[in-house]
Fold:
Amino acid sequence: MTHERDEALFRDAIRAARAQPPAEAGEDLLARVMADADRETVLRVRDMRGASRRSALAAFWAALGGWVAVGPMTAAGMAGLWIGLAPPVGLSGLSQGVLGAQTVEVPLLGTEMLAGLEEAP
Amino acid sequence: MSVPPLQDCPSDEALLAAYARGDRAAALALSRRVLPRVLAQAQRMLGDAAEAEDVAQEAMLRLWRIAPDWEADRARVTTWLYRVVANLCTDRLRRSRRGLALDAVPEPEDGSPGAAAVMQDDARRAALRAALADLPERQARAVALRHLEGLPNPEVARIMDESLRTVESLVARGKKGLIARLRGRRAELGYDDDA
Structure:
């Protein structure tokens, strides 16, 4: 008896829920759903473009050899620049011994390049 | 590789794949096809049209997001949507614990037997949702899919990605739990225990 009453209780509640008139999927809801679909398409295209740009940079970096190659190359360049700007004391004696006593001066900017500027208004 | 014309592959999965390739018409066709069922499922579980629309929109948004990664042989779109809607609805019911106060059921405008029956049905729906909100989540989903949606257990098992035996157990325990929660409200729900 109790079992039957429980079953009726459950069955009636389910029937009431299923009997509720279904909401209609109106044009307003459809428009919102499609707006979401459009937005997701735009975001996806943007992500794909960003990813392809990133992969082009990554390919360029890999062609250079990555950090393993570029790191020592940069260090050597910096060292050369430093030696050029402030040569160690013994270096000029060494170079004169190797290349001879003749000193050659090379101007960084040719004087002819500055000549025209002197008369500029 | 040439893409077959849409009319030759009108399955939900083909429409979703076409949308992932940028075909807006495919998204529209898929929405028109599945949205009414998605909305109806949400409405049966939540009993509120506005909330059901929110859930339907959210479920469709998740579908658009997964579209590029969809594996056609993994699942059917409808199966996936059943799961997402059931999850979203049980989450909402549990968060708000709403629908639960029978006092919230509106009074009928007249005293006719028809109006009383409508009110009684409203009260039973509210009590059912209160009980669902109170059940453990997996039981609530299993019972809703089995009894509110009327799906067979093997289909519920596919939707929930559980074994058939597990689903049978979840449905049985869920139903028992619902009855236990409804039993205390017999009088409110219009049952005369002396009869």
Q: What stands out?
A: Residues 111 and 117 of chain A are 10 Å apart (CA to CA). The first helix of chain A runs from residue 2 to 19. The mean pLDDT of chain A is 77.
